[in-house]
Each structure stands twice: as C-alpha cells, then as structure tokens.
C-alpha cells in the first residue's frame, strides 16, 4: 500500500468559504486522531479523493479542533462524511462503510 496522503484541511474559520455556493461538489470528512473507525476509513477516503478529482474535492476537518462546525451541521458520530453541492448537503455518510458502498453513494450524487 502506498504512503498515506494528507488531505487538505478545513476549519471552523475556513469552512464557509471552502463549501460556499458555487464551489461545486465538496466532501468533508469529519475525523479525529483518537477515532479507530476514522483510521480504518482514512485509506478509503484518500483513494476517493484521488480517484474522484477534479469532479469532487475532498477535505478533512479535525472534529476536536473545530467543534462549532460539527454542532452547526449536526455531526454526532465519527467518522462522518458530508457531501455538498454548491454549499448544500446532498449526502451524509456516517461511520466506517465499505469502499464500494461509499463509491456507490458518491457516484449517485455526482450523477445527479
């Protein structure tokens, strides 16, 4: 397996600009260093970021360091991936899911 890639980060301060109307499809992975399911999903999310670029931009948000965004968007479990189309949530994936299931959901969003 290849070395882990670092996904671009988003924070409470930068979230609105990164996921604003007109930004197209953006997926934000809400994660934390202590979260075992997050570590399981990391290579899957990294592969998705690589394979779906440039149709989908994948960002990562550290849940511990950015609690305001979690509260505002109702994120209660980790990992959670929210997929936005022009600033609006169009898909919510909670927990560690198989790569094929994640890709199926993303394909559906990108096709619509």
UniProtKB/TrEMBL annotation:
GO molecular function: protein-disulfide reductase activity
Disulfide cysteine pairs (residue numbers): 35-38
Any one Gene Ontology BP term: cell redox homeostasis
Highest taxon in the source lineage: Bacteria
Domain Thioredoxin, chain residue ranges per copy: 1-111
Keyword Disulfide bond (UniProt): yes
Entries under Pfam families matching the protein: Thioredoxin
UniProt keyword terms in alphabetical order: Disulfide bond, Electron transport, Redox-active center, Transport
Any Gene Ontology CC annotation: cytosol
Family the UniProt entry places it in: Belongs to the thioredoxin family.
Family matches, as PANTHER family: GEO12009P1 (PTHR45663:SF11)
Record-given protein name: Thioredoxin
């Amino acid at each position: 397996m290849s070395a882990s890639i670092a996904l671009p980060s988003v924070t409470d301060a930068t979230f609105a600009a990164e996921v604003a109307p007109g930004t197209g499809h953006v997926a934000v992975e809400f994660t934390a260093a202590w979260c075992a399911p997050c570590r399981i999903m990391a290579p899957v999310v990294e592969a998705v970021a690589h394979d779906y670029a440039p149709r989908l931009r994948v960002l990562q948000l550290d849940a511990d360091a950015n609690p305001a965004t979690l509260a505002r968007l109702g994120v209660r479990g980790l990992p959670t991936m929210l997929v936005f189309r022009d600033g609006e949530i169009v898909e919510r994936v909670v927990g560690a899911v198989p790569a094929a299931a994640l890709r199926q959901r993303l394909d559906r969003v990108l096709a619509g």
